[in-house]
Protein: 5-methyltetrahydropteroyltriglutamate--homocysteine S-methyltransferase
Amino acid sequence: MVTASNLGFPRIGGNRELKKLVENYWNGKLDEKALLTGAKNLRAEHWKLQAEAGIAQGHIPSNDFSFYDQVLDHLLLFGVIPARYANLQFPLETYFAMGRGLQKPEQGIDVPAMEMKKWFDTNYHFIVPKFEANQEFTLRSTKPIDEYKEAKALGIQTRPVILGPISLLHLGKAAKGASFDPITLLDKLLPAYASLLTQLAEAGAEWVQFDEPVLSFDLPLAYKAYYAKAYQYLASAAPGLKILLANYFGRIGSNLDFITPLPIAALHVDLVRAPEELDIVLQTVSNSAQFALSLGVINGRNIWKADLDAAIAKVNKVAGVLGNDRVFVAPSCSLLHTPHSLTAEVKMKSEIRDWLAFSVEKLHEIVAIAKAVREGEASVADTLAANRQSIQNRRTSNLIHNPAVKAALAAVTEDMFRRKSPFPKRYADQQTKLQLPAFPTTTVGSFPQTKEVRVARQKLKKGEYTAEEYDAFIKKEIDSCIKFQEEVGLDVLVHGEFERNDMVEYFGECLQGYVFSQNGWVQSYGSRCVKPPIIYGDVSRPNPMTVYWSQYAQTKTKLPMKGMLTGPVTCLQWSFVRDDQPRKDTTFQLALAIRQEVVDLEKAGIPVIQIDEPAIREGLPLRHSDWAPYLDWAAKAFLLSSTGVEDSTQIHTHMCYSDFNDIFPTIQALDADVITIENSKSDLKLLSAFESYGYTNGIGPGLYDIHSPRVPSEGEMKERLDQMLQYLKKELVWVNPDCGLKTRGWKETEEALKNMCEVAKAKRVKSA
Ligand code: MET
Ligand SMILES: [Zn+2]
Structure:
């Protein structure tokens, strides 16, 4: 029988119930009991919803719930708890302290959170496991077993989802001070997994899902032996329990060799990310394995309705070779990365809404595909007819296709990817115009977004503010921000970004081709959710987006004003994007729109323009061999957006992560006149990279970390600047914080920026 299956359901709840529960627990409004009950109700609701949709018993996920992060859950589960948390109460206090830190001065408790990292190429963040060289593993919690039993009591047979041992180790790091490869801990880890499996089997579980997404990476050959050892061990620990091994986010590639010999009952493949892999996987499995295939045909990373006919064809093909009993229909990955359901989207244009499927709608797609293959297409005739109609409507909609945009893209010429002159000539022209001192000071763009600023935007949205009132309010904010910057002594000013809710959403709202959901929340980390805008059609810029505010700001000061834009790759990366054209094409459309804005800013007399690209690096494909084409078009998109100006207009860019080595040549290829970057966490390594690659343009490595309210002293920042100067040419060095200041308060901002400007001034005197 072809089985309808799911790999994971969004835990946050249709109305972000989980967010509210944990935040109320954190701020003391809810006690532990209420938190646990609330969570239990939410899980029950989600299991019932999946069962009612028709996901098969035994293939509804459990243990996909988490109060903070599923990787963190596994650290608690196996007792991988750094010593600094040892004295806290177990489990909840320890758990949340690991996730978000804990300060209880009255008890002398002050522990920072563990490191967080982006989960593969998603915008979800996981807690990075830290292992000691003498790490011990013991089963410290019964979460997966409890949740399994909880569902069973409701009459629902679930498939517990466990992060596989190889992925758990591979995604982790040796604790500070130790240097060993965590994978060497495998032998010690496996018994803890085995006792978990034994208990799950005893509780009545029939299937267990081991997520091994690291199979989408380039893995060393030695991993073949690790996989063999791990899964032979686990299969023999609980012989009756069937194992589904799940890879997602990319192709398995040659890692398939590691998998075919394993004693597993099913393998999940991501056919959305790697559709080209179906034939080879099918052939290999039919020749040399006994297990079933779970076909990830429904996109777990995007919000479009699936083409059911195309999916059915794929599933039929596999069923024809392996037989119906060896086929599961599934989402490409856990549905964690798509919003809950479309039910709340009552305000969205109905034509566009009809093209979408969020998690709940995706469950129905999975079930329909499985049924069509099992019982024939006639059994779901109505569903298929409606689906064909939606797909057809979307393909031909004139909301999507804008001939002017397509023509503009076709007319792009090679010289639209480069500035008129090389950097040295430009920098000299810019200096003539800007007359900046040595070590010029600037900020990354945003200034504190106070409650009043957020309230003003809400009032405008709700109609409680007229356009005039709002305009006056923002101008007042800009006025005082400029006065503030002049007083602390900055050289290149910004307007402060008070009119922006978010650096991508703001531009999305100004551009055509974007639509916004009301309730399309996706978990980003812990209780934090984001609502990515949706790019549904050709992108164009009906009107200037930022010129009005930047121009106003420039009239308020004699100092140069820096215009602030978000770059095309970041707009793409932080949105749900079209699946009907390559990402590159969408990015180039965004780039053209931003190019128009850049040119308009220049015309309006703005001498410096910053185009932020903090997301270039996270867009890197998971496989090395896919990097070059991505980096090539990402750099080109930036160039297309930034090169329409005269030599004397200074282009800045900004990136806020410190791991630059992977993409260094790309950073140089962007050919921005100045780049401001994060530098607070790994200074010397980063700077030596800039030195050894011989970076030629202006550069401002963040002098202090804006992610903390702490005010760094002059001495501290002076030391940092001195360190930088060991690696960088002093004529090219800028002085700035490491990211925007919007999450900070005014008081600490004032103190920190004053200290920063003093450091620059003192340096000028010395080096004059
Ligand atoms: C995540 S990068 C943020 C850049 C933006 N210009 C800001 O200052 O907030
Ligand atoms: Zn930043």
Remarks:
- The chain has a mean pLDDT of 96.
- The domain at 411-516+546-767 is CATH 3.20.20.210 (TIM Barrel).
- Residues 74 and 163 are 7 Å apart (CA to CA).
